[in-house]
Write a structure and sequence with these properties.
The protein is an alpha/beta fold. About 40% of the residues lie in helices and about 10% in strands. The chain contains 21 helices and 15 strands. The chain has helices at about 5-15, 45-60, 70-75, 100-115, 165-175, 195-210, 225-230, 240-255, 280-295, 315-320, 385-390, 405, 440-450, 455-465, 470-490, 525-530, 555-560, 570, 585-610, 620-650, 665-670; strands at about 40, 65-70, 80-85, 90-95, 120-125, 130-135, 180-185, 215-220, 260-265, 300-305, 335-340, 360-365, 420, 535, 575. It binds beta-D-glucopyranuronic acid. The site of beta-D-glucopyranuronic acid (BDP) has 9 residues, from loops.
Length: about 675
């Protein structure tokens, strides 16, 4: 081809959109910045400037007025709320009591533009479900990310404070667009170094960049910081020298970052130091920090993820440690509780702490990063999992006392309500490794704002903004997303099975794993208990009695094999292989069918996706296609490993109408994953 021909081909491609760089870096914010909207505001501030700019460059409708109002209605709606009214043709007003409310309103308007074709009258009134909507980064100061599957940390500590990555601002924008208003920058397994003067200078730079987007910075702190950083003899929370150390440190932080959010603390858990090292309680530790943060309106998020190597059922331990402390925490402490009682398993019942700690503010911790759901290789849309959690009925205040209502201020009133999601963000060009993992970041923000949204609505919005509005694409791909979590549960751990992962890395199956000397609750056998007579963890009143931590009548439902939901059967019961399931199959057969269904579902995802080739750009299409191949391969690996292994106990045939195993158990047992290929 000569130059002219090349030029023509190039121009044609540009106009057809086929050369558009679609590497996923723009996330769901792909609107062209070519609009020239008329936008006016009755106030000026860095946040309002962002709102005006976003609308000016992207809004294609009638003029927009941004109005800060201090009227009663807006005050009652709360700080981040906004009202959008008007007509896309004639003119639109966004009103709020706060600058950030206007920015959220602006993103709402743009979302409507990008997802709907409707040009009608607008009357929107929005208030967030939770006051604080936070990402938790498990990012280490050396640039690695614990349980991160999208490359190194986006925080380039070695370059800061002098050099500023353009990603910080893009990060702020993406989060603000979905209502996230706080971020914990570093890993809960916290290095004390984050509190040194050098690091605080770096943190300040990030805080300054995030501020106009309404995002506050928080830090994870190591409870032994006074001892490690300043050589104090210990870090006893009742020691006045230790208390003074924290007060000084907190003063130093607020001089640099006047709107600093507060601390996240993992204490006396998995080897982290904590108040119990000094014979003190979690409340003693949390309150000491809370008192020092109080003058600055800072908060402490104290994690309830604790368990010890004792003979006690691990699922019971957080409840046992925290219930006696209910009511003993200061009002600027929030206890941060993982959704389930164990640890972000593919499916768990909700943690019994929700609804049970009535005098302490609790915040849910969800895991956006797919530590236990195929890393960034498997396509798993998590909104359905989180919806199940939010809607679970705790019965703590009668029927309808959902987990959402126990935490969002509906049932119990505390000074603030909050929710956190463990981020899945890294340096990868598409931020999250898998293009579809972006949907989980998006869904977390949307549900933290409004847990009443359906998974369907969220997937719909995200697909339209991220890929295309073409129904021929949106409808089948949405279906795939909505089925994907159920599929993962099926091919990994159906019927309430849990924690049967390979040693340490939590990617593939190793239900047989046995390492002499290792604490039992780190090994799969502890959880599945497979034997010739049956399988499952007996948590009934006759077993570990974890059921009794749930409120009546849930306790009785879970306790009785006849009423226990089958999706959680092996979580609560040790069940004979020939136990009749509701559909008439034996437990063994049902287990086989569930695993097989999971595999078939992923094969179906491949078929759906392959039909989508012409609707989207080639790069993202091929990227997802190749990940789906790994996904399908892994689903078969899971199915064969679990069924062949459990068959050694059940002694029963795998029903003849389902796909036959492709592997030998002995070969599967030899697989030792080189994690470098999966990070
Ligand atoms: C587990 C992770 C571990 C975390 C821990 C936590 O495997 O990396 O440090 O949770 O939440 O899920 O503290």
């Amino acid at each position: 081809m000569n130059r002219t021909v090349l030029y023509i081909v190039f121009s044609l491609c540009i106009s057809a959109g086929c050369l558009k760089a679609e590497d996923g870096s723009r996330l769901w914010l792909r609107a062209e910045m070519t609009a020239q909207a008329q936008v006016k505001a009755n106030r000026e501030s860095p946040t309002i400037t962002v709102a005006v700019e976003e609308l000016k460059t992207q809004w294609k409708g009638a003029p927009v007025q941004l109005h800060i109002h201090r009227n009663k209605k807006l005050r009652n709606l709360g700080k981040d709320s906004y009202i959008i009214s008007g007509d896309k043709q004639a003119g639109i007003t966004i009103q709020s009591g706060s600058d950030i409310g206007l920015l959220y309103g602006a993103y709402h308007l743009l979302r409507l533009q990008e997802t709907q074709n409707d040009n009608g009258v607008l009357q929107v009134e929005e208030s967030p479900a939770y006051d604080l909507r936070l990402l938790n980064h498990w990012d280490n100061l050396n640039g690695t990310v614990e349980r991160g599957y999208a490359g190194y940390s986006i925080w380039k500590w070695d370059e800061l404070p002098a050099k500023i990555s353009p990603r910080y601002k893009e990060y702020a924008r993406a989060n603000a667009s979905i209502g996230i208003n706080g971020t914990v920058l570093n890993n809960v397994n916290a290095s004390p170094d984050i509190l040194t003067e050098d690091y605080l200078q770096k943190v300040k730079v990030i805080a300054d960049i995030l501020r106009p987007y309404g995002i506050k910075v928080y830090l994870s702190v190591n409870f032994s910081s006074p001892k490690i950083l300043s050589g104090l003899s210990g870090s006893d929370p009742l020691d006045t020298g230790v208390q003074r150390w924290w007060r000084n440190k907190i003063g130093e932080i607020y001089r640099l970052i006047p709107d600093f959010g507060g601390f996240l603390v993992k204490a006396n858990s998995e080897g982290q130091p904590g108040p119990q090292d000094y014979g003190r309680t979690h409340a003693d530790g949390a309150n000491m920090l809370a008192d020092a943060l109080k003058p600055y309106v800072g908060i402490v998020m104290w994690r309830a993820f604790v368990y010890n190597p004792t003979p006690e059922d691990r699922a019971k331990q957080a409840y046992q440690e925290f219930i006696p402390l209910d009511g003993k925490f200061r009002d600027n402490v929030i206890v941060q509780v993982k959704n389930g009682p164990i640890d972000f398993q593919p499916r768990e019942p909700f943690s019994p702490l929700f609804g049970a700690m009535k005098h302490t503010a609790l915040m849910p911790e969800l895991q956006i990063t797919q530590e236990y759901l195929g890393f960034s290789n498997h396509l798993v849309f998590l909104a359905p999992q989180w919806k199940e959690f939010f809607e679970s009925d705790t019965y703590c205040n009668g029927k309808g006392s959902t987990v959402a209502k126990t935490t969002d201020g509906t049932l119990f009133s505390h000074p603030v309500s909050a929710i956190a999601g463990v981020a899945n963000i890294g340096q990868d060009i598409n931020w999250c490794g898998h293009h579809f993992a972006q949907a989980n970041w998006y869904a977390f923000g949307r549900l933290a704002w409004d847990h009443g949204l359906t998974a369907d609505e969220i997937a719909d919005e995200w697909l339209r903004m991220t890929f295309t509005r073409d129904e021929a694409f949106v409808t089948p791909v949405k279906e795939m997303m909505l089925d994907s979590w159920g599929a993962a549960v099926n091919y990994m751990m159906p019927l309430g099975l849990h924690h049967i992962f390979a040693w340490d890395h939590h990617y593939g199956p190793e239900p047989w794993c046995d390492i002499p000397g290792v604490r039992p609750d780190w090994l799969p056998r502890y959880y599945h208990n497979a034997g010739e007579e049956g399988i499952g963890f007996d948590r009934t009143t006759g077993g570990s009695d974890a059921v009794s931590q749930y409120h009546a009548p849930l306790k009785e439902y879970f306790n009785d094999i006849a009423t226990c939901p089958e999706d959680l059967l092996l979580w609560f019961h040790h069940v004979p292989w020939d136990h009749p399931m509701k559909n008439g199959r034996t437990l063994w057969d049902e287990l086989c069918y569930r695993y097989d269904t999971g595999v078939q579902q992923v094969r179906e995802f491949q078929k759906i996706w392959d039909r989508m080739e012409n609707y989207i750009d080639g790069d993202r299409f091929r990227h997802v296609q190749s990940r789906l191949k790994i996904h399908a391969h892994d689903a078969v690996w899971w199915k064969d490993a679990c069924l062949l292994y459990f068959q050694t106990y059940s002694g029963r045939p795998i029903p003849y109408d389902i796909e036959r195993p492709m592997h030998e158990l002995d070969d599967l047992k030899k697989i030792k994953l080189d994690l470098r290929h999966h990070n």
